[in-house]
Design a protein that fits this description.
3 domains, 625 residues, FAD/NAD(P)-binding domain, alpha/beta, 19 helices, L-asp_N-monooxygenase_NS-form, five-stranded parallel sheet
């Protein structure tokens, strides 16, 4: 007798296809496993995960990358498991954060992989995170009430009747599809194409924006000058791969790093819009200091209408950051202020044009004051007649940043960091609810605001800036200046900065940054087909004067279900990741005990998915049969 005859009520297995096998898929499946006993009601499920890279780490966190590349977070600041802080409907299923795993079950795994065991305050190699995610994936699969099949290839098409077509030609009929594609490769912009063509004609090496770990650096020749535009994470990775990655090494004597070149390094002339590297990550913690709800930049203050960023939002951001900074200063370091916090708080609430004079009177040391414009552009208004003088100034600036970011006497910086996280969540909600114009969203939030956030809160580990200084002392890294302009003149790239006299010539130029996300320019064949057919929708963004701002993100509703070009919602196609509107937690891993928005969204999507797949026949009817 067949299973169908024994259980006439039993439905056939449900099939789910995940396109993308990185951390987002792992986290979503963990939440799926947690709620399945309550919602799946015994239905068999078959799960397929499609990704050309290994499931768990995906492309960014794969094992096959240089062990010299580090995470941008401390070991203790990363987890993929929910804890008691997470506010969600599904059950909490605790698991080890990265620091706990490293000290426990991960110790043997790391030893076998030839990786050192990082401490909780260390910035571990990305390969450590790759091992953690691989372990998490195996645990999640063990807990899933489903059969799991992985496919190490690309998905190239999703048909109207919900069949996922793979590169190999195999087709998988799905009851539900989740696109969790992570960061997407994109076509070059018109400017990048022009650069590439001109460089090729002149026999020059041009490297456009891209993920540094995947970039071919062979065209950057030993001892030859290279112009680098970009001073964030992409530059730090480039610096590491072109120095230690080419055989150089460091030693330390009395706290000072010395770099020993291998002779294979190029000479890097680095500049950017600001002209300075991102601030080092904070090297301390303060008990009880954590992100708190915003005071000024609130949903109530923003209302529900269309906002002008400069008029309605930016002043509230300035007040929010100033409040966080000065409250911590008055509370933790009262010996450095004059007057009472109550009086100062009243002045903050009023935020009149005379506030800077109030701050100067109450806070004698300029180093203790918060002026966002000065923090954002430390080289503004400065000019240098010779490069040697500029480089001495830069060295002092970076040394001062390292000292300050390691000193809890400046814990107001930590308060600002936490306020930035809270502000980001409010801005994300305003964007999701359509309160900002396309122009404000792209130019003010995604460019200016995100740039300031990254500069202050998402900089490199302190050790990396120490290495930067050592490389400068060794003559491997030179500082090119702010607002760096690059052009091709005959057979050279030429770089100039309005802040530093002179020019730099080189036969190689690297744009050290990630390309701006633009789903309309994606090279992914699956997404291109869905957009062309109208099965997916994405914004094409324009400024008020009609200037194109490029493509925006894929459109999804509040439940992360795909929105078609005709405005209808696809009930069984879910979208998650940095290229999707309203996708939470896409900027990085959640910290333990932080109630990360990515956890909350993963839980809600997992439960919606389970309800979609649950048997349609009521339990009472099954019992009767």
């Amino acid at each position: 007798m067949s299973v169908a005859e024994l259980h006439p009520w039993k439905e056939p297995p449900a099939t789910i296809v995940f396109v993308g096998g990185g951390p987002r898929t792992v986290g979503l499946l963990e939440r799926f496993a947690a709620s399945a006993p309550d919602l799946l009601d015994g239905r068999d499920v078959e799960i397929h995960v499609v990704d050309p890279y290994p499931v768990g780490g995906g492309r960014i966190w794969r094992r096959e990358q240089s062990r010299l590349l580090w995470m941008n977070s401390m070991t203790s600041d990363v987890t993929i498991f929910t804890d008691e802080s997470v506010d969600c409907d599904g059950p909490i299923v605790p698991g080890p954060d990265l620091a706990t795993w490293v000290a426990g079950e991960g110790a043997v795994i790391l030893e076998k992989a030839g990786l050192e065991q990082p401490g909780p305050m260390d910035f571990p190699p990305r390969l450590v995170q790759a091992e953690y995610l691989a372990w998490v994936w195996e645990r999640v699969v063990r807990d899933l009430p489903a059969t799991v099949t992985t496919h190490r290839e690309r998905a190239v098409e999703l048909t109207a009747d919900q069949r996922v077509v793979l590169e190999s030609g195999r087709e998988i009929a799905a009851d539900a599809v989740i696109l969790a594609l992570g960061y997407l490769d994109r076509l070059p912009t018109a400017s990048e194409s022009a650069w590439a063509a001109q460089a090729a004609d002149a026999g020059l090496t041009y490297i456009p924006p891209g993920y540094t770990a995947d970039v071919d650096l062979d065209g950057l020749w030993p001892k030859s000058p290279v112009i680098v535009r970009g001073f964030g994470q992409a530059f730090i990775d480039l610096m590491v791969l072109l120095t230690e990655g080419r055989g150089g090494w460091y030693d330390e004597c009395e706290g000072l790093l010395t770099y020993h070149p291998s002779g294979d390094e190029p000479i890097l002339y680095v500049g950017s819009r600001r002209g300075v590297p991102y601030h080092a990550k904070l090297g301390y913690t303060v008990a009880g200091t954590k992100p708190v709800p915003t005071r000024y930049l609130t949903a109530e203050a923003l209302g529900d209408g269309l906002l002008d960023f400069d008029r309605d939002v930016a002043p509230l951001i300035d007040k929010e950051l100033a409040y966080a900074h000065y409250k911590q200063l008055f509370t933790a370091h009262p010996e450095r202020v004059v007057g009472s916090w109550t009086e100062f708080e009243n002045a903050l609430d009023e935020w009149t044009p005379g506030f800077e004079a109030v701050a100067a009177s109450a806070v004698p040391d300029p180093a203790d004051r918060f002026v966002r414009s000065e923090i954002d552009r430390p080289l503004a208004g400065r000019s240098f007649e010779d490069r040697a003088g500029f480089e001495r100034f830069m060295t002092g600036l970076i040394e001062g940043d390292l000292v300050r970011r390691a000193d809890p006497a400046y814990s107001a910086d930590l308060a600002v960091f936490n306020a930035l996280l809270s502000i980001y969540s409010v801005l994300s909600r305003a964007i999701t609810e359509g309160q900002l114009s396309d122009e404000d969203r792209v130019r003010k939030v995604e460019t200016e605001w995100h740039g300031f956030f990254s500069f202050v809160a998402s900089g490199p580990p302190p050790r990396r800036l120490e290495e930067l200084l050592a490389l400068h002392r060794a003559g491997i890294v030179r500082f090119a200046g702010p607002d760096l302009d690059v052009a091709i003149d005959n057979d050279h790239f030429v770089a100039k900065s309005p802040g530093v006299d002179g020019e730099i010539q080189a036969r190689a130029f690297v744009e050290a940054r990630l390309p701006r996300p633009d789903v309309l320019a994606t090279t992914d064949p699956l997404l291109r087909g869905l957009l062309d057919s109208g099965a997916l929708a994405a914004d094409e963004l324009f400024a008020a004067d009609g200037t194109s701002l490029g493509g925006g993100q894929l459109k999804a509703d509040s439940q992360c279900r795909a929105i078609r070009a005709d405005g209808s919602t696809h009930e069984a196609l879910f979208l998650l990741g940095p290229s999707v509107s309203g996708s939470a937690g896409s900027s990085g891993f959640s910290r333990p005990h932080f109630n990360g928005p990515g956890f909350r969204q993963n839980d809600a999507v997992a439960r919606d998915l389970l309800k979609l797949l649950a048997p349609t026949v009521r339990k009472e009817e099954r019992h009767a049969s």
